[in-house]
Amino acid sequence: MQTLSDIKAILATRGLEPKHRFGQNFLHDQNKLRALVAHSGVVAGDLVLEVGPGTGTLTEALLDAGCEVVACELDDDMAAIIRDRLGSRVTLIHGDCLDGKHAVSPAILDALAGRPFRLVANLPYGAATPLVLNLAAHHPTCLGQFVTVQREVAQRLAAAPGSDAYGAATVLISLTSRVEVLELLPGSCFWPVPRVTSAMMSVIPNPERPSIDPDRVSAFVHRIFASRRKQLGAVLGRTAQFPVGILPSMRAETLTPTQILSLMKVMP
Fold it and tell me: What are 43-52's pLDDT values in tens digits?
């Protein structure tokens, strides 16, 4: 597994430095890397999607565990490093992991070929929320997501109703998955040291997830959370029929995901 000195040397030999515009903060703490792989529960032969492999530190750990890795890298220089160092040992997708903001890249889906997989990655901050939500809502072949993200993202996805962090993203992920913040990662685990604290989290599909239209749910949830401090009656109309237990005087931020789903079902 690459050390911090190894990562710096790999970049230095190519005259490279971490690029802020790509959110390149390389996870180099080997204990945290091992923990991420262990939490994922992957075994030899498992298919893994990694987004943002950088110099390939986590990629190599996954390969050492016997995994088949599809690695998606947007940066030209990092993609060249993965290609040169790992060659045919990985399937490299050189491009964005997202197709716009609301879909996973077709190149990734082609590489996964409909097979069950896990996402194991030190995610670039900018791609984290849309990627996690898309995989949870639209891709049942994703058996779990085990990722490092900005702490605020993890707290928002795992938030409880009524808390400041609770919002549209919380509701969307809660209807499909169980989210757990596994541990916090101080900036010293990364190079360059970011200004924020990160978190390792898991997103596991809920086997009892309700049958929903993810796009309809997303539109409704964003509608009622657009003015989160407004009463539901002001947002949806006070003449609307509300389900038992939900009053027009309530606010979206106080409702559980199940209540929000029941509210959506009676709205035109």
Answer: 999 999 999 9
Q: Is CATH 3.40.50.150 the classification given to domain 4-205?
A: yes
Query: How many other C-beta atoms can be found within 10 angstroms of the C-beta atom of residue 147?
Result: 28
* CATH number belonging to domain 214-266: 1.10.8.100
Buried-state track 244-262, b at ≥16 Cβ within 10 A, e below 16? eebeeebbbbebebebbbb
Buried b (16+ CB within 10 A) or exposed e, 111-146: bbeeeebbbbbbbbbebbbbbbbbbbbebeebbbbb
pTM of the predicted model, to two decimals? 0.95
Question: Residue ranges per domain, the chain?
Answer: 4-205, 214-266
- Dump pLDDT digits (tens) for 185-237: 999 999 999 999 999 999 999 988 888 899 999 999 999 999 888 999 999 98
